[in-house]
């Protein structure tokens, strides 16, 4: 990181939008917001955006919460309480405000900023970077902020290259050869192609850099317009494209990679299939996302747990794991694991066979269970002898089964089996 990038990061506040439910994760987000979902064995999804900010040198952070926020707030209080006011550091948790002239809920992404303008101005950052708190990636935001300042644009939008067919679910940009945004459309039926690659489109990452005072004036101006939807992608960015200057910042220019990561890594784990796949991918010999990079750590709340333990060494009853990640506090008792990811405190009992299992914290898997390609919610107890992943029709009746055959298991689903 060069001196100018460091200085600009110190003048920037990160505002993290972390209020979304993530409805395509169904029961997994019944009790927690999507940014609070577990990922990678010990982290939460929001840890990636927050870690990127801290590692980039940004030490003023606000997190806007809304849906089912308790789990998220508790995680932030436990794992992100190391900021020191005397060093001009802060992390503010910003639930939707109860104001006399306003509704309780944030009306949209831009309204989350509007409701907290007084807090933002109180810190007086020169720049503000708006972040989505529900994606998995590593990025040096200081490089994007520097790009914004040098370009002189009113806004800089972080973007990734995606196949045009996949871009239909994103905000998509049409740009010229100098990265200036000529058009910005939300979830288009026919996404505009990239200038030099007609099969690909530039999709918004939900990351925006503004000069703070400019954004505050713009939000105030937009609030007086008819039909204002209080949304960055739907209202603010298209308005700037029409009336001002907007630049695209390709993710490849500021993504953080080690020698093991051959291409930029960015994932929206907003479906059961995507969530399972991204977690299981981490068990690969050389995963596309390197979580072992000490130079760009993913900060999180680390529970005090004993080491993982593997016990029993008899034929057919041997505690062992192949191509798997096993977190602290786990006990693998006479079970076989293949390409599994177990979060903190999972216990598996004798003769259980697990393949492609993503088990959230404190799951118990009892004897002789056979599980294949499943996601298990926190605290679930799998009954003795339960078989999942071998009979698609039966699985679909008892659990939530995705199009790709991934089964999601929650405790209420287990309780219905036993009633």
TrEMBL record:
Q: Does the keyword Membrane apply?
A: no
Residue stretches making up the Glucose-1-phosphate adenylyltransferase/Bifunctional protein GlmU-like C-terminal hexapeptide domain: 306-409
Give the record's family classification: Belongs to the bacterial/plant glucose-1-phosphate adenylyltransferase family.
Q: Which residues form the Nucleotidyl transferase domain?
A: 14-283
* GO biological process entries: glycogen biosynthetic process
Q: Reaction catalysed by this chain? A: alpha-D-glucose 1-phosphate + ATP + H(+) = ADP-alpha-D-glucose + diphosphate
Q: Which UniProt keywords apply?
A: ATP-binding, Carbohydrate metabolism, Glycogen biosynthesis, Glycogen metabolism, Nucleotide-binding, Nucleotidyltransferase, Transferase
Partners and quaternary state? Homotetramer.
- List the SUPFAM superfamilies hit by this protein, alphabetically: Nucleotide-diphospho-sugar transferases, Trimeric LpxA-like enzymes
Q: Give residue numbers for the site Could play a key role in the communication between the regulatory and the substrate sites.
A: 66, 105
Example of a GO MF term: glucose-1-phosphate adenylyltransferase activity
Protein name per its UniProtKB record: Glucose-1-phosphate adenylyltransferase
Q: Which InterPro entries match?
A: ADP-Glc_PPase (IPR011831), ADP_Glu_pyroP_CS (IPR005836), GlgC_bac (IPR023049), GlmU/GlgC-like_hexapep (IPR056818), NTP_transferase_dom (IPR005835), Nucleotide-diphossugar_trans (IPR029044), Trimer_LpxA-like_sf (IPR011004)
Task: Please name the pathway.
Answer: Glycan biosynthesis; glycogen biosynthesis
Q: What is this protein for, i.e. what is its function?
A: Involved in the biosynthesis of ADP-glucose, a building block required for the elongation reactions to produce glycogen. Catalyzes the reaction between ATP and alpha-D-glucose 1-phosphate (G1P) to produce pyrophosphate and ADP-Glc.
Record carries keyword Protein biosynthesis: no
| Coiled coil region boundaries | none
Which organism does this record belong to? Answer: Sulfitobacter aestuariivivens
Query: For this protein, what is the EC number?
Result: 2.7.7.27
**Protein residues bound to alpha-D-glucose 1-phosphate:** 106, 171, 186-187, 204
Annotated PROSITE patterns: ADP_GLC_PYROPHOSPH_2, ADP_GLC_PYROPHOSPH_3
């Amino acid at each position: 990181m060069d001196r100018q990038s460091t200085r600009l990061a110190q003048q920037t506040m990160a505002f993290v939008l972390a209020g979304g439910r993530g409805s395509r994760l169904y029961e997994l987000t019944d009790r927690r917001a999507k940014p609070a979902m577990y990922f990678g064995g010990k982290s939460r999804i929001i840890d990636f955006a927050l870690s990127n900010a801290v590692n980039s040198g940004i030490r003023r952070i606000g997190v806007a919460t809304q849906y089912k926020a308790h789990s998220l707030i508790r995680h932030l209080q436990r794992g992100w309480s190391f900021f020191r006011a005397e060093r001009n550091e802060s992390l503010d948790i910003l639930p939707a405000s109860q104001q006399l002239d306003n509704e309780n809920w944030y009306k949209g992404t831009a309204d989350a900023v509007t409701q907290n303008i007084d807090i933002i101005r109180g810190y007086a950052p020169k720049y503000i970077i708006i972040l989505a708190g529900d994606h998995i990636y590593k990025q040096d935001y200081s490089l994007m902020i520097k790009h914004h300042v040098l370009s002189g644009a009113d806004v800089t939008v972080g973007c990734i290259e995606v196949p045009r067919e996949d871009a239909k679910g994103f905000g998509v940009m049409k740009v010229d050869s100098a990265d200036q945004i000529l058009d910005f459309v939300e979830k288009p039926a026919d996404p505009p192609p990239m200038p030099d690659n007609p099969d690909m489109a530039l999709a918004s990452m939900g990351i925006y850099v503004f000069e703070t005072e400019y954004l505050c004036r713009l939000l105030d101006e937009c609030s007086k317009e008819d039909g204002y939807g209080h949304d960055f992608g739907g209202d603010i960015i298209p308005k700037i494209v029409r009336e001002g200057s907007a630049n695209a910042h390709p993710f490849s220019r500021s993504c953080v990679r080690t020698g093991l990561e051959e291409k930029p890594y960015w994932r929206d784990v907003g479906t059961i299939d995507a969530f399972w796949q991204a977690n299981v991918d981490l068990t690969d010999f050389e995963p596309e996302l390197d979580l072992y990079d000490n130079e760009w750590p993913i900060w999180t709340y680390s529970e005090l747990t004993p080491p993982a333990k593997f016990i029993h060494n008899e034929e057919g009853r041997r505690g062992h794991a192949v191509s798997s990640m096993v977190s602290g506090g786990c006990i693998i008792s006479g079970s076989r694991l293949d390409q599994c990811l177990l979060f903190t405190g999972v216990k598996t009992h004798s003769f259980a066979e697990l393949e492609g299992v993503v088990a959230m914290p404190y799951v118990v898997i009892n004897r002789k269970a056979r599980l294949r390609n499943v996601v298990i919610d926190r605290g679930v107890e799998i009954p003795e002898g339960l078989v999942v992943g071998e009979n698609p029709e039966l699985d679909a009746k008892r659990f939530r089964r995705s199009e790709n055959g991934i089964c999601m298991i929650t405790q209420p689903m287990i309780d219905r089996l036993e009633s």
